[in-house]
Amino acid sequence: MRWRRIAALMAPVALMVSAGCVSVPDAGRMREIRAEAAERRLEDLAEQRTTDSGVYLSGPLLLWEAVTMAQHYNRTLQQERGGREIARGRIEASWAEALPTLNLTGNYTRLDEPGRATQPDGSSYVTRPDDLYSIGLRVTQPLFNGRIGAALRASRLYREWTEASIRVATETVLRETIRVYYRAVLSEHLLEVNQTALKTAERQLEDARARRRQGMASNFDELRAQVEVSNFRAQVLQARNERDVAYTALYKLMGASPESEVELVEDIPLVIEEITFAEAVRVALEHRADLAVAEYALRLQDESVAVARSRYLPEVSLYAAQTWANPDPHHQSQAEWGDEWQAGVQASLPIFDGLNRRGVLTQERARRQQLAVALRDAEEQAVSVIRQAVLSLKTAEEFAHSQSQNLETAREALRLVEAGLKEGQNTPVEVMDARQALTKASANYYQSIFDHAMARVTLQQAMGMLSLDALPDGPVLRPVLEGDE
């Protein structure tokens, strides 16, 4: 009978465990789940509207609109912002060190036989029933344990650390969105340059064929023109592919549907402004989010050291408990419900724990030293990045100026050669060479504008000043510095 009761009690537990094991999907079921998800995603992509695949966009798109969308819909930033809820939960959990705890307990025990006592006359009576029941409430209020202050400070530091980490991720996404937006604009320019060159080469081919029929050009001139047309067609195909890739990357960063169709109406700016290395370093060391992350990490570790040190301190708490039990707690022989209450103060002081406290404290102090070194390294890295960014901006400015002059020279050279061809002073091959030079000069010019804009964005990010209010389409660096003074 006793073993049957034990089996009856254990059977529900066994069923729960087995049910949990059976519910895990195997590899085949997982493929079915992913196949269903693939069908849903393909249906989303086929519809030109806002779906789970992203926000469907069409029409003109300005840079600040692209950046704003990235801030709201970028998947990476959405994951990072989830850390705010984790920080909120950590703050709530930290109060457990200071607030009272209230526990409800229940217990049932079945004994093999009731307890009995024998009287002098040989008779016996029950001193303990074979069924024991109890329900209790216990409230405990910590008075001192050395961890209360550290836990509360650490939770708030974690919240600030989370916000700084989100800012780091936001600046990275902003920079990448700006880069891809400008890359898409650059690809449009390069496609236009190559399409213009292709049309001109096609006209040159038609002219070469007409001149050959008139006996004024050789077969070589016509073949050379055909080769040039073929080369420019290949360049147009490559430029069109690069444009499509850039737009796809932009949609991904903005959290937009890959089926979106937008028109980038904002050109790449060329904004010239001076900034010294010392000014940039001062702003960077004050505003960079990654330095704030490193500083908060160090302060968080200070609290971890404080918690480890608190294990050497006594723990004191106040408690009160109320118990309802059958049999009556005051009369164990009576098989009826009764209650009792307790209240008191508990104190404990660990004397020796096998060097565990000492080992943990040593580890936490070593981690703090590592984080202190990491903070110094982050500061030195910031200075190095600023130096490179300032030099790169200066170089990009000079390169943009040189390519602008080179473009004008190439245009003038083509004009002179085309005029010379009409007068018989230049050959068609010289015209082709001049056209290729102009095409390359145009591409280099637009590339130099792009490089300069990205050098400014890189410097803004390195200074910790890249934000929606400081987009690289105006003189933003100098006003930022003046506003801090």
Key traits:
485 residues; alpha+beta; Outer membrane efflux proteins (OEP); 2 domains; 4-stranded antiparallel beta sheet; two-stranded parallel ribbon; 8 strands; 66% helix; elongated
Structure explained in plain terms:
The chain has two domains: 59-99 and 146-313 and 353-484, Outer membrane efflux proteins (OEP), CATH 1.20.1600.10; 101-144 and 315-348. It is elongated, with a radius of gyration of 38 Å. 66% of the residues lie in helices and 13% in strands. The protein is built from eleven helices and eight strands. The strands form three sheets. Strands 2-5-7-8 form a four-stranded antiparallel sheet, with no helix packed on it. Strands 1-6 form a two-stranded parallel ribbon. With 485 residues, the protein is of the alpha+beta class. The mean pLDDT is 84.
Structure described in brief:
The chain has helices at 2-22, 27-46, 63-73, 75-94, 148-213, 219-254, 277-287, 289-310, 356-422, 428-463, 477-484; strands spanning 58-61, 101-110, 115-118, 124-128, 131-144, 261-264, 315-326, 338-348. The protein has 485 residues and is an alpha+beta fold. Helix 9 (356-422) packs antiparallel against helix 10 (428-463).
Class by helix and strand content? alpha+beta
Order of helices and strands: HHEHHEEEEHHEHHEEHHH
| CATH C-level of the largest domain | Mainly Alpha
Strand order of the largest sheet: 2-5-7-8
Q: Give the count of structural domains.
A: 2
CATH architecture of the largest domain: Up-down Bundle
Overall pLDDT level: 84
Q: Kindly state the number of beta strands.
A: 8
Distance between the ends: 87 Å
In terms of DSSP E residues, the strand content is 5-15%
CATH topology of the largest domain: Outer membrane efflux proteins (OEP)
| CA-based gyration radius | 38 Å
CATH superfamily of the largest domain: Outer membrane efflux proteins (OEP)
Shape: elongated
